[in-house]
Amino acid sequence: MTDTETAAPESAETVAHRIHAESKAATPRQAEAIEREEAHAAHNYHPLPVVVAEGDGAWVTDVDGRRYLDCLAAYSAVNFGHSNPVLLDAARAQLDRVTLTSRAFHNDQLGPFVEALAQLAGKDMVLPMNTGAEAVESGIKVARAWGYRVKGVPDGLANIIVMSGNFHGRTTTIVSFSDDPTARDGFGPFTPGFRMVPYGDAEALAAAIDENTVAVLVEPIQGEAGIVVPPADYLPAVRRLCDDNNVLFIADEIQSGLGRTGATFACDLVGVVPDLYLLGKALGGGIVPVSAVVGNKDVLGVLQPGEHGSTFGGNPLAAAVGRAVVGMLATGELQERAQLLGQRLHTGLERLVGHGVVAVRGAGLWAGVDIDPALATGREVCELLMERGLLAKDTHGSTIRLAPPIVVDPSDLDWAVDQLAAVLEDLSER
Ligand SMILES: *Cc1c(COP(=O)(O)O)cnc(C)c1O
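That is the input. Now the predicted structure with pyridoxal-5'-phosphate docked in place:
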């Protein structure tokens, strides 16, 4: 805000009017709500000027009663839709019983949850945490402990290989190995012990692995980078390299997992099984934060009492919701739905290539759409979509991401593609 340094401070009313004037869609009621938030919430986000008051399925309603199709689904944390009745029932039932015990005691919900999640993942152990970043941090700690105690890496020398363009969260250790200057600059000093190689390049990975490498941390599809799908032979090659060098394969499936790509895990799409799954986002059903590291006893079993923990991790409310989420995925119906609707979405989007769209990527009900930068920024497209009743979010300048809840109606999905087509047509006539 260097350009306003010398200006007099604006009154709350002026701010509300300025926000209203700047954001074509925001009514005075929305402007007021936005101003209250801006006044006292840290400005670490740049939201679209819409104020959501309610959500039902794939749709949300703003404070003025206007409806929007939610094509972001809270970055895939709302895969099963807003106010999902099955998940709300599970949460409500548990709210009336007990919600937090801490892990100082046992609770009767954690056992059934970890049993079901382990079974879904084909593994035998679960480390329950809350947020995605915590699952990533936990995976890093587990991999280092495994490296020293099982692999025999000399103390303090473990290295973990990460990918260019990665997004794994916002903690100081995690931003230490980000190559996004916005995420990283000004937050050092950074945690050592990470090496970066280009995403999708198995040869570069092979060259980076040495005797002290304990893990390779990879998103099977990079979400924040713009839904970047690696070559089909990449993840199998990562698996082979990890096997050959006694290195753990850690798949960050926090955004790609739990149905989004048309499979339970994005790794399933190429028949790969990692040593550790990192899960979050949708695991909490859009109700409470629930994350987990899932693996086998030979790896997760390295943790001893007192070495790692979380006050809220594995709490009975989270466990009840998480178990209901796993239950919804157990039949495979939602994964199949995401696959079928995904085909429909991608067929629709492909038709826009050459008409304001440069490229479309993705898998299942998950698409990264590169807008022709000569036409508009991703942000501008998202603002115009919002005016038409569709919520989506830009990433990295000219890419917009479409990831509606899997429960979305096929006709609503078609409508969403039509809105994007209409916005692009309007922009080309501008
Ligand atoms: C969102 C995300 C995270 C971080 O999850 P938070 O709950 O925001 O901490 C980590 N990895 C990936 C791939 C993500 O998409």
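Residues 75, 131-133, 136, 167-169, 219, 223, 252, 254-255, 280-281 surround pyridoxal-5'-phosphate (CB under 6 Å).
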